[in-house]
Amino acid sequence: MHFNKAAILGVGLIGASFAAALKKYGLCGEIIGYGRREGNLKRAKAKGIIDSFELDPAKTCTDADFILLATPVGNFVDIARKISNSLKRDAIVTDVGSVKGKLVRDMEALMPEGVFFVGGHPIAGSERSGIDTAAAEIFRKATCIITPTGNSDKSALDKVTAIWETFGSTVKLIDPDEHDRIYAAVSHLPHLIAYEIVNTVADINSSYLAFSGQGFKDTTRIASSPPEVWRDICLLNRDNLLEYVEIFKNNLDRVSQYLRANDSESLEKDFTEARTLREGIG
Amino acid sequence: MHFNKAAILGVGLIGASFAAALKKYGLCGEIIGYGRREGNLKRAKAKGIIDSFELDPAKTCTDADFILLATPVGNFVDIARKISNSLKRDAIVTDVGSVKGKLVRDMEALMPEGVFFVGGHPIAGSERSGIDTAAAEIFRKATCIITPTGNSDKSALDKVTAIWETFGSTVKLIDPDEHDRIYAAVSHLPHLIAYEIVNTVADINSSYLAFSGQGFKDTTRIASSPPEVWRDICLLNRDNLLEYVEIFKNNLDRVSQYLRANDSESLEKDFTEARTLREGIG
User: Fold this and answer.
1) A244 and B198: CB-CB below 8 Å?
2) Which of A123, A132, A278, B127 lies in disulfide reach of A143, CB 3.0 to 4.6 Å?
3) Closest CA to A35 of A25, A45, A48, A27
4) CATH number at A178-279
């Protein structure tokens, strides 16, 4: 498997790490980057992460046989519309976005005849953004979710799967809507909560933040995640997220009731259930 | 500063680490442990953490000139009542509990004439409990909050402060009620939330837990904390905690409203405020 020209749309932590991995494993000839910030693209080129760059997504994709979308997910549809007429027949378009579901179907619908979209979501990266922490290794021993649909091209699906396996990731195939239900629970809700824990302490008394220990720091580490990335994810997965926020609030209401009733036994039982589940994931 | 006999009531992670630090820095002669589980006390003795043990708190404190309360905070008042008649004049009683406030005043009131209570709370330890992770070093470079009141004996306060400084901790003196407002915000609320994030995912679909990445694991690490310890802390600081849960729920309601209104700008602004504050604490 070898691509002549790979277009990386969005050269941030994940896009740049993907480009680095393509090079490391010799999967492509030339890599061209697209982004909104020219300074960042220049730095990526100087670091050898990309070979060249464009500030226009359509130009970036001309002649590319592999296209990766790695911008905030809110830009995907707009970018797909812009690149649609420039896409080469048999080109593979994939992404690394944290939302799938309807977005995958929208992307499929925007592909021209003979161009195939396959949705992907590597469970990698961190709260750090940008190319300075980018590395091919972040995908090693990571899980990558691939979300085929009834419209997926088998050959494109196999190639995208093979790329991630070459990067050292374990690929799991999951329905796009199920993906969004899962990640709303184990990722999007925790991010929303982490941001709001910090904002809550600020509401109470922001000087209290200076007293935080390792527990607070770990619990809110992901509140350092890039706001524009998480704004898009939360909005695009908002139906699941809103439903889960209510379930979470019901849990808070239940333990609040235990506190008000001084119900030591129920509170300990509640915490023990959580602890047992948490211990189960290592 | 040297104590002839130190009584450690509660030989878990913090109690055992304190005992280890007393020995390491040569601050006392004999160390006697008390706890409810004889097997644990035998292991602590075999490991050389304590020199001997008792299963009765009053006997443990007989002739002790230094007494540390390191059980779950819900037992402090009961223990204070039991040991009160056994306490030697000029003995110093201190603790490592995560709740101060009214508990400090209750403890002061339960001390016999000539015995001094000084409240302490080292910001150390982890979600792991028990003596196997105990070590004198956990207090090095940690903060220890000491909570003097108008009733505090100056000499006892100075000695307790000196102990923590000898252990390598930075001591901060804080009013007991202010301590509880601070730690309800930066510790007790995050613990409650971490437990309830896990329980929420279980409500949604417990099989989703297997998909969790590092973000989920960090955010919920403290949900592995010992339930009986956190049950007591939450109950003893429940007024602050209940107030803060409401503030937190208001924050969740506000961002939920942004999601429903598809208000991308407000959502990003909200996340950016949180991120800026979070970055500020390292």
Assistant:
1) no
2) A123
3) A45
4) 1.10.3660.10
The two structure tokens encoding residue B216 = 């989920």
Distance, in Å, from the CA atom of B220 to the CA atom of B11, rounded to the nearest integer, reads 26
Looking at residue B48, what is its pLDDT? 96
> CATH 1.10.3660.10 region(s) of chain A?
178-279
The pTM for the full model equals 0.94
Q: How far is A99 from chain B (nearest CA, A)?
A: 14
List the pLDDT tens digit at each of the 282 positions of chain A.
Answer: 899 999 999 999 999 999 999 999 999 999 999 999 999 999 999 999 999 999 999 999 999 999 999 999 999 999 999 999 999 999 999 999 999 999 999 999 999 999 999 999 999 877 777 899 999 999 999 999 999 999 999 999 999 999 999 999 999 999 999 999 999 999 999 999 999 999 999 999 999 999 999 999 999 999 999 999 999 999 999 999 999 999 999 999 999 999 999 999 999 999 999 999 999 998
CATH number for the domain whose boundaries are A3-174: 3.40.50.720
ipTM: 0.94
**Token code pair at residue B82:** 């039991």
CATH 3.40.50.720 residue ranges for chain A: 3-174
Q: Where do you find CATH 3.40.50.720 in chain B?
A: 3-175
**Residue among B218, B251, B281 minimizing CB distance to A209:** B281
At A73, which amino acid appears?
V
Exposed, middle or buried by CB within 10 Å (0-12, 13-18, 19+), for A43?
Answer: middle
- The answer to whether the beta carbons of residues A131 and A105 sit under 8 Å apart is no
Q: Which of A173, A186, A279 to mutate to test the interface with B (most CBs of B within 10 A)?
A: A186
Q: What is the three-class DSSP state of A14?
A: helix
| 3-state secondary structure (DSSP) of residue B251 | helix
Nearest to B225 by CA among B81, B56, B98, B90: B98
User: How many inter-chain contacts (A to B, CB under 8 Å) are there?
Assistant: 283
Contact B241 A225 (CB under 8 A): no
Return the residue in B99, B179, B196 with the most chain A beta carbons within 10 A, the one to mutate for interface testing: B196
Closest residue in B to A231 (Cα–Cα): B268
Of B215, B259, B279, the CB nearest to A242: B259
Four-way CATH pick for B3-175: 3.40.50.11440, 3.40.50.720, 3.40.30.10, 3.40.1010.10: 3.40.50.720
Give residue B191's pLDDT: 98
Distance in angstroms (rounded) separating the CA atoms of residues B26 and B257: 59
